[in-house]
Amino acid sequence: MSRAATDPTNRRLPGMSWPARIGWLALLAYSIYAASLLDITWARLLIGLEQGANFLARMFPPDFSRWKLLLHDLSESLEIAIIASAVGIILSMPIGLLAARNLLPDWVSWPARMLIAVCRSFHPVIVAILFVKAVGFGALAGVLALIVASVGFIGKLFAEAIEEISLKQVEAVRATGAPFLNVIIFGVMPQVLARFIGFSAYQLDSNLRNSTMVGIVGAGGIGGTLFAAFQRFDYDFVLAILLAIIALIMVSEAFSARLRATFQ
Which listed residue, 37, 49, 131, 246, has the most CB atoms within 10 A of its CB? Predict the structure, then answer.
């Protein structure tokens, strides 16, 4: 074998195909075109960086003098997230089961999948606006909005987890003459329980974050207080609220990680 054939510098590196190159060039061209339409310029970016620095300077030091209001609103956000997660998880189990195409016929699974798709179609803030109009301002609107979000997320993942199970265990339970409910309990749930708990823990984290957002539109929680502080240019209290939210989310992350590790 010649030296030229074995020399690694003479080997051609695999490159992208022409369709891939054209696709990347088209994406780059469209990004530049879209940036021009949206008035995204370096001048605006530099001005924004200067104004952002001034804004951050006005936030320090954080003002925790209204800690009672802070704790009250944080506890309300936590209550909204827990209630919405509990109800959403309970509703997602039968809906996700009905949406599993390997267990039920299409005339049952497709309506359930359509319901899940509708629940996933809108951001929780948009759903919260609708519920604020329906039931008025307060925590109830936030709870209902996050229940919808929970059904859309957990229902989809639960249905997909059921579709990935081994049907041998299901058929073994069916062969004993067990009714459908026992087939689900002994043939399906043992295979998906750990994943379902992981999905539920993640949704609790998500609802806790979203519960701080839905308050901006009047659906309860600390989001309303945060929005009001912004409107009053009360930036030191804004920083206190943001730090409290970060602390709450970090505690929730630690709890969720411990919960997932316990059941895995």
Answer: 131
Integer Cα distance of 28 and 118 in angstroms: 33
Give the Cα separation of 140 and 125 in Å (integer): 14
| pLDDT mean values, one per 10 residues, the chain (264 residues) | 49 65 88 80 78 79 83 88 91 88 83 90 89 88 91 88 81 79 80 82 85 83 84 85 86 77 67
Q: Which residues are CB-contacts of 212 (< 8 A; sequence separation ≥ 6)?
A: 77, 221, 222, 223, 226, 245
Residues whose CB falls within 8 Å of the CB of residue 252, separated by 6 or more in sequence, listed in order: 204, 205, 208
What pLDDT score does 4 carry?
47
Q: How far apart are CA 166 and CA 187, in angstroms?
A: 9
CB under 8 A, 24+ apart: contacts of 102-108: 102/162, 102/163, 102/165, 102/167, 103/162, 103/170, 103/188
Please answer whether residues 189 and 103 qualify as being in contact, where contact means their C-beta atoms are separated by less than 8 angstroms: no
CA distances from 76 to 23, 124, 226 (A): 48, 17, 14
Interatomic CA distance for residues 18 and 165, integer angstroms: 40
pTM comes to 0.78
Torsion on CA atoms 173, 176, 177, 181, rounded to nearest 10: -30
Return the pLDDT at 188: 81
Residue 31: which residues within 8 A CB-CB, separation 6 or more? none
d(CA 102, CA 95): 14
